[in-house]
Specification:
By secondary structure, the chain is an alpha/beta fold. The chain folds into 2 domains: 3-168 and 342-357, Glycogen Phosphorylase B (Rossmann fold, 3-Layer(aba) Sandwich); 180-332, Rossmann fold (3-Layer(aba) Sandwich). It has 17 helices and 12 strands. The protein has helices spanning 10-23, 42-48, 65-83, 95-106, 126-137, 146-154, 169-176, 180-189, 205-208, 211-222, 234-243, 259-268, 277-286, 300-304, 316-323, 328-332, 344-357, and strands at 3-7, 27-31, 87-91, 110-116, 140-143, 162-164, 198-201, 228-231, 251-254, 271-274, 290-292, 308-310. It has a 6-stranded parallel beta sheet with strand order 2-1-3-4-5-6, sandwiched between helices. A 6-stranded parallel beta sheet has the order 9-8-7-10-11-12, with helices on both faces. α1 (10-23) packs across α17 (344-357), α3 (65-83) packs across α4 (95-106) and α8 packs across α12. The longest helix is centred in the N-terminal third of the chain and has 19 residues, at 65-83. It is globular and about 60 Å long. 52% of the residues are buried. The structure holds uridine-5'-diphosphate. The site of uridine-5'-diphosphate has 15 residues, from α1, α12 and α13. This is UDP-N-acetylglucosamine 2-epimerase (Non-hydrolyzing). InterPro entries: UDP_GlcNAc_Epimerase_2_dom, WecB-like. Belongs to the UDP-N-acetylglucosamine 2-epimerase family. One of its GO terms (molecular function) is UDP-N-acetylglucosamine 2-epimerase activity. It is an enzyme of class 5 (isomerase).
């Protein structure tokens, strides 16, 4: 069978790499070009062991949301029409996943949605709308957790189409985390000492687009009492330059790092502070505490299992103290991840191959 695996952004590449590997020669990785900043993607494929994808579309990055979805819907429809995949795999909640799912569905090609059933219940988030659209057209829903599956069933998905597979981030994190010697070398290269620094990321519009909030967050990072490493997402770099925000002396900004480097730096950190979705999952595999700088999360599992706490910029310090209370970091280091057992990709690949043999429902 021919399986088109659609990817648009950094987290999709990271989380689909284990699925592409499990599918073997059937997989045809396809990059939409939603992110085609070299710093975000080029370095990535080698790092996560992904063969270089085909990139049939042009000029997708830099458009607004409607323009992006429209261009990808048109481009992917043409591509699927000529390439005739038996099944299309999409991951998560990006514009690329939305367009890929719709294009396949309209052509009667089976759609498998990886990381299905996340809900923030916040319709102001473009990602939430993408999740609802993909959930409506997917033929097979691969939910990471029982809670995610429950969302889909409540929305009326046929029970036979919903599968709890775990999240592939568990195996991605385990297989991409560099060994102890390499971790030590990377930590030295970034001038940090094990357990003696904070690793932070910021890229959600709710944190970058309001200059006062961005400044408050930087200020909070500067007050943590430890050096902070902040690999800057291109959106955040642009927001910093435009707002003239002051970066505190304790905060060191770097270029985005590849995934093995990010995991090595995360594994050595005392604490993480981030608004990223993927980082909320990775800390549960690495056994690290995380302050999530958001007002809501579609990943309550990390909070419920004790790894993460949600905080506004002004409450980052208090949340950090709570997570670093005596004994708690040691406790987290041994807790199992609520996101799976490291065999999600195997299960997903089996479902994808089964879907390729059954005509799409639509
Ligand atoms: N990440 C990375 N390098 C960095 C920052 C993050 O490899 O400099 C990884 C991180 O480990 C996680 C993923 O990127 O797996 C998260 O992507 P992002 O925060 O862009 O998106 P989200 O998960 O919020 O959708």
């Amino acid at each position: 069978p021919r399986v088109a695996v659609v990817m648009g952004t950094r987290p999709e590449i990271i989380k689909l790499a284990p699925v592409v590997a499990a599918l073997g020669p059937a997989a045809r990785p396809l990059a939409t070009g939603q992110h085609w900043d070299a710093a975000l993607t080029d370095v990535f494929f080698a790092g996560v062991g992904m063969p270089r994808p085909i990139q049939p579309l042009r000029g997708i990055g830099g458009r607004d949301r409607a323009g992006q979805v429209a261009a990808m819907l048109t481009g992917l429809t043409e591509w699927f029409r000529s390439d005739r995949p038996d099944v299309v795999v999409v991951q998560g909640d990006t514009n690329s996943a939305n367009a890929g799912a719709q294009a396949a569905h309209h052509l009667g090609i089976a759609v498998v949605h990886v990381e299905a059933g996340l809900r923030s219940h916040d319709r102001a988030m473009p990602e939430e709308i993408n999740r609802l659209v993909i959930g409506a057209v997917a033929d097979v829903h691969c939910a990471a957790t029982a809670g995610n599956a429950e969302h889909l069933l409540r929305a009326g998905a046929p029970p036979a189409s919903v599968h709890v597979t775990g999240n592939t981030i568990v195996e991605a994190t385990r297989s991409t985390l560099p060994d102890a010697a390499r971790r030590a070398a990377l930590q030295e290269q970034y001038g940090v000492r094990p357990d003696g620094y904070v690793l932070a990321t910021v890229h959600r519009p709710e944190n970058t687009d309001d200059p006062a909030r961005l400044q408050a967050l930087l200020h909070a990072l500067g007050e943590l009492g430890l050096p902070v490493l902040l690999p800057l997402h291109p959106r955040t770099r642009a927001a910093l330059a435009a707002s003239g925000a002051v970066v505190p002396a304790a905060v060191r900004c770097t270029a985005p790092v590849d995934h093995p480097t990010f995991l090595a730096l995360a594994a050595g950190a005392r604490l993480l502070v981030s608004d990223s979705g993927g980082v909320q999952e990775e800390v549960t595999v690495l056994g690290k505490p995380l302050v999530v700088v958001r007002t809501s999360t579609e990943r309550p599992e990390a909070v419920d299992a004790g790894f993460a706490v949600l905080a506004a910029p002004g409450a980052v310090g208090t949340a950090a103290e709570w997570l670093l209370r005596p004994g708690w970091p040691e406790e987290l280091a041994h807790r199992p991840s609520p996101f799976g057992d490291g065999r999600a990709a195997e299960r997903i690949a089996a479902l994808v191959l089964a879907a390729a043999r059954v005509p799409a429902l639509g």
